[in-house]
């Protein structure tokens, strides 16, 4: 019998996290780590042993409300029948701001539509996956499911997404190190907003600097000036440190990457924990990897995914 598979990328925030909450631009990139979903004929089941996820429509077992929302939406819009068995695997670290839940929703939507014989239009995949994101997150920006659906590098500013025109070179990579420190994005964001209110005059200038920095970085990416992009990432890290979201552990990872020759290194996402990213030329990747391993961490080396969700 027929089986269809789809994959969708995770993402990193390259620049502008936190500042984006107050309307400044941020840059995100889809990266080559994927959630992959395969669908064959079955009895209305979506599962992932790896992610501990199960929807069994025949017995009303649902431990993931977001994916249930995807199935409901597809049934309502396209008359999706309960004749599928979807299995999900993912390479994207969970709970680290890399858009794992969005990539799962995007790839599942794409695969279920394909299985049902409906051409999986990207706009539809985006809309349906955003419904899932609304279940997972209180006020989702849409950054995660947008990057996972469309791929590439995008600027997000006040609800609007624009693709950054780039031919990202094969010899500039992104190294990701997960600190393994868990934190709640919501409470980190709340702390930052409190600091903003307490030091608003100083903070408004830091936020303006972040905005300038992102605009400069867009040009650097468009013109292929990755040495400059690296420096701008370092400056961005300094600004994130100044708003209170760094930590001793994150600093040690950032400096390990810089010492090993990264063009730039910074916190990515909410901070306090989560991931650090480095912009690294191919020739320096082995030394950066070695340094991170010496800290007891397992680095991931990725490139930009330009395509977004697709058949696998
Ligand atoms: C978290 O990945 C990104 C933040 O800017 C929060 C947000 O934009 O919702 C810290």
TrEMBL record:
Domain annotation GHMP kinase N-terminal: ranges: 68-152
Top-level EC class: transferase
Keyword Transferase attributed: yes
Compartments in which it is found: Cytoplasm
Predominant place of localization: cytoplasm
Protein keywords: ATP-binding, Cytoplasm, Isoprene biosynthesis, Kinase, Lipid biosynthesis, Lipid metabolism, Magnesium, Nucleotide-binding, Transferase
An example Gene Ontology molecular-function term: magnesium ion binding
Pathway of action: Isoprenoid biosynthesis; isopentenyl diphosphate biosynthesis via mevalonate pathway; isopentenyl diphosphate from (R)-mevalonate: step 1/3
Tree of life domain: Archaea
Annotated family: Belongs to the GHMP kinase family. Mevalonate kinase subfamily.
Subunit structure: Homodimer.
Name the record gives this protein: Mevalonate kinase
